[in-house]
Each structure stands twice: as C-alpha cells, then as structure tokens.
Amino acid sequence: MRWIKGIISLGLLFFLLCSLSWGQIFSSLVEASFIWVAYALIAGFGYFWVAAWRWRLLLRSLDVQPPSLPTLAQVYFIGGFFNNFAPANLGGDAARITALLSRGRNGVSITSSVILERILNLVGLCTLCIWAFLAQPLPLSTQINLTMGWWGGAVGIGILSMLIALAFWPPPIIRPWISKMHEMSKIVWRHPLELAQAMIATLILHFVLMLITFNNSQAVSIYLPLSIHLAVYAIAGIATALPITIQGIGIREGIYLGLFGNLGIAPESVLAALALNYIVLIMFSLLGGIFIFVTPRCLR
C-alpha cells in the first residue's frame, strides 16, 4: 500500500507540475516575505501547544494521569518527526503512544486517546465544510458549490460508514481492540466537560493550521480573506482524509490549485505557498528529532 500511495502521489504531482513554470515558482520562493514566513512559524508553534492541550484533555477523559503540557508538546514534536520521516503515516501516533508508556500508564487508554484525536479531527473538518457549504465564502458558481457539497457529503458518509463497519463488524485481528475501545467510550462519556473542551480545541487547532497556509500565502503575495482560506483548508482536509496518497500529497495541491485558480491566483504562486508549508513542516520535524534525545528525561 505504501508503494501504491507513493506512485499515486508522484503521478498527481507530475500531472500538476508538468505545465507550470519552475522558474516562476523558485522566484516566488526567493522573493517571499520573511515576516509572513515568521508568522507561519509562530502559528506552527501554536499548533503544537494547542494539540498538546487537546491531548491532555482527552487523556484526562480516559482516566489517564497526563504529563505536563510542555512535556506533551515535546512528545508532539517527536510525533511530527516520525510522521514525516518514518515509512508509515501512523509513525507519529506510534511514537507518541510509546513515549507515554511509562509509570504504569494504560496503553489501551493512551491508544484510544490518539484514535479519538483522529475522530475529532474529522468531525471538525466536517463542521467547517458544512459552514463553507452554507456560508459560501468562496465566490464560486452555484453548480461548483453544489458539486463540492455532494462530493464532500459522499466522502464524509463513506468515512463514517467505514468507521461504523469497523465498530460493529470488525475483522478478527482487531476485535479485541474494538472491545477495549467500547469500554473506553463508556469512560469518555463520563467526562462530558473534557470532551466538549477537546472539541473546541479541535476547531482552534484547524484554525491555527489554516493560519500557517494563510501566512505563507501572504508571503508570496496571495491576498485572500481568511474565510476563503478556511473554506479551502476544510475542503482539502476532507479530501486528504482518504488514505490514497502519502500525507495527502497531490490531492491537497490539486484542490488548492483548482479553487485558488478559479479566483484568479497564478498556479506558480499557489505552489510556492504550499512549498513554504512543507518547508515549515520539515523544520518542525527536525526540531522533533532533537527532542528525541531530551524528552525521555522529562518523562521520568
């Protein structure tokens, strides 16, 4: 599957890039405004702290005594390193779970908190897509809006159906874990306040992630309102939730090129902004690699 995803990602990128001017993309990167890139880096740091806060809430809702917020943020940095440099998309989740398996913490509860994070991320994206469909911040034709609404609904229903199927008709290999997850869900519903706060944190998290792209877009002179960026981010997020490419590479670029291009933005500028996103992501991933050597001391 990893090889298939890689081939699809490369194929989509080749299709998108074959007709563009590489020189113009490079020129946009070189001339990018440093101050806006710095704002993107600040938003990136904010993402890790908000993500750590949400994870702490979810661990508490599962009756797990979590480490301090700075320690969880460091663990998130480590997860980012493995997400981008490990061979599987779930490498970061596995690294975070492993980092907390100390002092008798319940491994099933920790794993459940990470799975719950993924579910909340999907619910948050669906919420933003519903807002984008109703508020229509993108100045697109009614037909395009309806098409995106139907496709978004189809993707959401497909993912929800898959989750329901796994919950009620799980394959034998994961049945013990599904049983444990049912037990964990009963514990979670005994902590409605933490769950509500985690949902609010999820929406904040999506907004902060959108700010990274917004600031990098401003850096290459793409000036669009926040509402448009938020709508495009939500649509791209739902589309990349389907695990058919590596980290959504190729799909995300195609959606941004299509929607921003419909607003008159040059495709070279769009790809330059997305390239800055990846540069920022790699910088944080390398910082996570450094934390690998210092975080174990913090978890004693």
Compose a concise summary of this entry.
This protein has 300 residues and is mostly helical. The protein has helices spanning 2-17, 22-30, 34-61, 69-85, 91-100, 107-135, 142-168, 175-188, 192-219, 226-240, 251-262, 267-291, 295-298.
Structure explained in plain terms:
This protein has one domain (2-6, 26-298). 78% of the residues lie in helices and 0% in strands. The protein has helices spanning 2-17, 22-30, 34-61, 69-85, 91-100, 107-135, 142-168, 175-188, 192-219, 226-240, 251-262, 267-291, 295-298. It is globular and about 55 Å long. The two termini are 37 Å apart.
Question: Characteristics of this structure?
Answer:
300 residues, mainly alpha, 13 helices, globular
Secondary-structure map:
Elements: H1 2-17, H2 22-30, H3 34-61, H4 69-85, H5 91-100, H6 107-135, H7 142-168, H8 175-188, H9 192-219, H10 226-240, H11 251-262, H12 267-291, H13 295-298
